[in-house]
């Protein structure tokens, strides 16, 4: 059963467009990562956050991917654009 993952990035004022540019490049690797099935990007009205809605084969696939992102320094790259830590949530996708 697939797992849905949401990742919300709270943004610094005025940093939305730069963050989206960085994200656009980073998501190429996300989509190619083992276990990723899809990624959609939503931008909140008012430019205060960006939400990723990701579908993964398993939560373990996403956790391995997340660790890879930490190990390769993406957190340091996004630091100047965000106002806090990303909020990650896991959801089962086929309950009903």
UniProtKB/TrEMBL annotation:
Signal peptide: none annotated. It holds the Pfam family ABM. Transmembrane segments: none annotated. Residues 3-91 form the ABM domain. InterPro entries: ABM_dom, Dimeric_a/b-barrel. This is ABM domain-containing protein. It comes from marine metagenome. The lineage of its organism: unclassified sequences, metagenomes, ecological metagenomes.
């Amino acid at each position: 059963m697939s797992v849905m993952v949401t990742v919300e990035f709270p943004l610094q004022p005025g940093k939305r467009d730069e963050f989206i540019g960085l994200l656009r490049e980073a998501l190429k690797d996300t989509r190619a990562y083992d276990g990723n099935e899809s990624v959609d990007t939503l931008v909140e009205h008012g430019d205060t956050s960006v939400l990723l809605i990701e579908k993964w084969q398993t939560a373990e696939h996403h956790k391995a991917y997340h660790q890879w992102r930490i190990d390769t320094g993406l957190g340091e790259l996004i630091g100047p654009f965000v106002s806090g830590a990303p909020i990650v949530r896991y959801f089962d996708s086929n309950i009903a």
